[in-house]
């Protein structure tokens, strides 16, 4: 008997769980259908109120309380028209996920019936019980109060299914004492810091703007496997990754999946997911197969960082939700399968004015574009001086499996800037930049093919932080993580670098003949200090590790190497200086993330142990009994029993090894009870992980030797190739 029918998994899916297909969409019609757009508001609000609100949304001015009541009425009408019965403040606690608590619009009236109600106060402020969200020591459990506060700059939206729908209001989440317990508050604060410094710098270049903001677009990678397999793997269910599992005979060696034709079921899933995302006003643009079998990617067009972060969370939720309509599980973990590429989330980042000027657009002649060079220099300075923070912003247990694994950038932060800009910088450092190398046209050797304009620089896939034409791409971000803290770090460190360069310039300008000369000097000085952060070579190579060490760059291979640095004086001062995070808020984040690391590994350790003991061990014993019986019978018949005996021995030896490793793991888990969370996390990294690896080695050996019909777990071959 097969342990279950893989063919059924491949065949028994329908177009969605109702078995019918949805109507082909008219993209422009449905786009933003489930969001409360500014246009909706504009129509429904008195002009005076709208003007007030617009100032808050577009220029970041303080919210006028009168506005809330008017908006609440309009919002409720709109939501109820869409069939919503409930509303929720939708927020992003430090779990990295989203949270919601629904309240209905219903309120009893005098006559024994009910009316609906939603006031300005309901809109502006909520009060969820904060005691069950991670707070990292920011409050005691008996101080349960927490507040959510409406973010008028991110549109409210409707979540729906066949049975009904509810209104979601994006909010920030803070403790009773006003400390940020969430991911949104620091984004808004850091974007404000960036706005302030960018405006100050733009004044030097005589550019006026209402507001500057960072822009963000994320390329999300994910795996899809049949749910049939997912639910039979305790490790996928508790940990999101396979804790055991032998390498299949075929993995990604053939390079045949990347950009391959999209399988039928997956395409159906993508179409429905995109439709749902369009309704939420999320501008998805790109989809394709990724490198590993059953790995895919989706990317939207960039938006302002706050909205992009909200949309990123919605995107992850939607992918997971819609996949189930097709009998699929969408896996966002950074490393679901050993030996195959993991998943990342390239975070594309730039700075733009509200009038739409991209400040990282070099134009055709970057050597001549002082404004571009100024901001570019500030970013290199920011990255050079804050390698630790960038590394910390992507540090979590799952990403440790990926970074530096010859599939993802190394844990050393550096930046790739391409030939053209490297050349311009060299010229600058040698006295002055006179020209920019041009890409020109590239012929393809056939008269029927057009000549293509060539970029002035190639791409580099191994750099953790690469300049890609008119934006930076932070490629080390993990696929499952909230993008908020990486954005907060980028906004803050760049604001700080701009701040310092502006101050130098303001000090210098009196001693120089011209602004241009003063600018040139400031840029040159800064670049000569931070140029070591530029690396255009192969980031996967061992030589780079050596060279980076010679250059004095930080190499923090794991979460536990990186996280303790978050509370270094330099970092606390930086966050406080720009009013992004208080000292207590920085400490709380460190504690929460260390705790998350610890919890993740404890769950993995427990799951590994129970799978090995209750699934693998019994399967191997059954097989051994069969072999032993076989040896006895063969002997009775006077035949040669060497084959069965040898197999029996191998399995038996491995079972003994497995047992030993299990004891090691138990001991290691029990020993992790020190005083500080960071110490415990260190202990886990040094003792629990090696024991888990030993168990995995034994189990994977058994998988290759125990009879297939005894093996209780779906294997890689099935999970990855049944589509
Ligand atoms: P690439 O070819 O470099 O991958 P794409 O145009 O495919 O570039 O864009 C990849 C991602 O980068 C998309 O999500 C896109 O919206 C985003 N992106 C493009 N320009 C910017 C920008 N100025 N700021 C932030 N993100 C951007
Ligand atoms: Mg890209």
List the helices and strands and how they pair.
Layout lengths: L5 H6 L15 H4 L7 H7 L2 H13 L5 H17 L2 E7 L12 E2 L1 E3 L5 E3 L3 H5 E2 L19 E5 L6 E5 L2 E12 L8 H21 L7 E15 H4 L3 H6 L24 H16 L4 E6 L5 E6 L2 E2 H20 L3 E4 L13 E9 L16 H16 L1 H6 L4 H4 L14 E2 L1 H12 L11 E2 L9 E2 L11 E3 L4 E3 L9 H25 L6 H16 L11 H10 L7 H4 L6 H9 L5 H54 L5 H30 L5 H27 L12 H6 L2
The structure holds adenosine-5'-diphosphate and magnesium ion.
Helix tally? Answer: 24
Derived from helix and strand composition plus strand pairing, the structural class reads: alpha+beta
Helix content: 40-55%
| CATH fourth-tier homologous superfamily of the largest domain | Glutamine synthetase/guanido kinase, catalytic domain
Mean pLDDT over the residues:
91
Per DSSP, what share of the residues sits in E-state strands of 2 or more residues? 5-15%
Shape: globular
C-alpha termini separation: 23 Å
GO molecular function, one term: glutamine synthetase activity
InterPro entries: Gln-synt_C, Gln_synt_N, Gln_synth/guanido_kin_cat_dom, Gln_synth_cat_dom, Gln_synth_gly_rich_site, GS_Type-3, GSIII_N
Family: Belongs to the glutamine synthetase family.
Keywords: Coiled coil
């Amino acid at each position: 008997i097969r342990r279950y029918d893989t063919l059924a998994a491949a065949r028994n899916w329908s177009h969605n769980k109702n078995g019918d297909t949805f109507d082909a969409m008219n993209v422009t019609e449905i786009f933003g259908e489930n969001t409360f757009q500014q246009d909706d508001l504009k129509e429904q609000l008195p002009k005076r109120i709208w003007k007030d609100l617009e100032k808050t949304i577009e220029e970041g001015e303080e919210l006028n309380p009168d506005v809330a009541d008017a908006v609440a009425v309009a919002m409720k009408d709109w939501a109820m028209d869409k069939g919503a019965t409930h509303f929720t403040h939708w927020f992003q606690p430090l779990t990295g996920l989203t949270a919601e608590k629904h309240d209905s619009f219903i309120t009893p009236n005098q006559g024994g019936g009910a009316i609906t109600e939603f006031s300005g106060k309901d809109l502006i402020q909520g009060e969820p019980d904060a005691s069950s969200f991670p707070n990292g020591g920011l409050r005691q459990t008996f101080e349960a109060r927490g507040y959510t506060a409406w973010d008028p700059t991110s549109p409210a939206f409707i979540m729906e299914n066949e049975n009904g729908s509810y209104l979601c209001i994006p909010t920030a989440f803070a403790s009773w004492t006003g400390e940020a317990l969430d991911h949104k508050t620091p984004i808004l604060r850091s974007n404000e810091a960036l706005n302030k410094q960018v405006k100050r710098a733009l004044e030097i270049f005589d550019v006026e703007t209402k507001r500057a903001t960072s822009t963000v677009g994320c390329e999300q990678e994910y795996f899809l496997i049949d749910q049939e397999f997912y639910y039979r793997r305790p490790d996928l269910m508790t940990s999101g990754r396979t804790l055991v599992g032998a390498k299949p005979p075929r993995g990604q060696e053939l390079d045949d999946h990347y950009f391959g034709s999209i399988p039928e079921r997956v395409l159906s899933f993508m179409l429905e997911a995109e439709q749902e995302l369009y309704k939420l006003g999320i501008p998805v643009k790109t989809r394709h197969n990724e490198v590993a079998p059953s790995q895919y990617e989706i990317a939207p067009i960039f938006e302002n960082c706050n909205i992009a972060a909200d949309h990123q969370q919605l995107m992850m939720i939607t992918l997971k939700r819609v996949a189930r309509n097709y009998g699929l599980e969408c896996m966002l973990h950074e490393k679901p399968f050993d030996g195959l590429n993991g998943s990342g989330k390239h975070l594309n980042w730039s700075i733009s004015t509200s009038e739409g000027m991209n400040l990282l657009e070099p134009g055709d002649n970057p050597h001549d574009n002082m404004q571009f060079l100024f901001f570019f220099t500030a970013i290199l300075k920011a990255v050079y001086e804050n390698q630790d923070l960038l590394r910390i912003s992507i540090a979590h247990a799952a990403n440790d499996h990926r970074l530096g694994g010859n599939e993802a950038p190394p844990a050393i932060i550096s930046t790739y800037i391409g030939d053209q800009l490297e050349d311009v910088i060299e010229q600058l450092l040698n006295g002055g930049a006179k020209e920019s190398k041009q890409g020109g046209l590239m012929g393809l050797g056939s008269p029927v093919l057009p000549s293509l304009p060539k970029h002035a620089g190639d791409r580099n896939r191994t750099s953790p932080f690469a300049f890609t034409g008119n934006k930076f791409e932070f490629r080390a971000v993990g696929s499952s993580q909230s993008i908020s803290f990486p954005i907060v770090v980028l906004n803050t460190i760049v604001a700080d670098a701009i701040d310092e360069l502006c101050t130098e310039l303001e000090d210098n300008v009196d001693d120089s003949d011209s602004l241009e000369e003063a600018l040139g000097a400031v840029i040159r000085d800064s670049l000569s200090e931070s140029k070591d952060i530029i690396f255009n070579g192969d980031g996967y190579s061992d030589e780079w590790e050596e060279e980076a060490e010679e250059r004095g760059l930080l190499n923090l291979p794991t979460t536990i190497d990186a996280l303790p640095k978050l509370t270094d004086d330099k970092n606390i001062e930086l966050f406080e200086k720009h009013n992004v995070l208080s000292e207590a808020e920085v400490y709380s984040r460190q504690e929460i993330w260390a705790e998350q690391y610890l919890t993740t590994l404890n769950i993995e350790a427990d799951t590994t142990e129970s799978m090995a003991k209750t699934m693998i061990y019994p399967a191997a014993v059954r097989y051994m009994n069969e072999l032993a019986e076989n040896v006895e019978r063969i002997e009775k018949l006077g035949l040669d029993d060497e084959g069965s005996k040898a197999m029996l021995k191998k399995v038996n030896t491995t079972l003994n090894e497995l047992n030993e490793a299990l004891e090691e793991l138990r001991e290691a888990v029990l020993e992790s009870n020190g005083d500080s969370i960071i110490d415990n996390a260190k202990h886990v990294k040094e003792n629990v992980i090696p024991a888990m690896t030993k168990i995995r080695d034994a189990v994977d050996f058994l998988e290759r030797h125990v009879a297939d019909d005894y093996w209780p777990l779906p294997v890689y071959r099935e999970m990855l190739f049944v589509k």
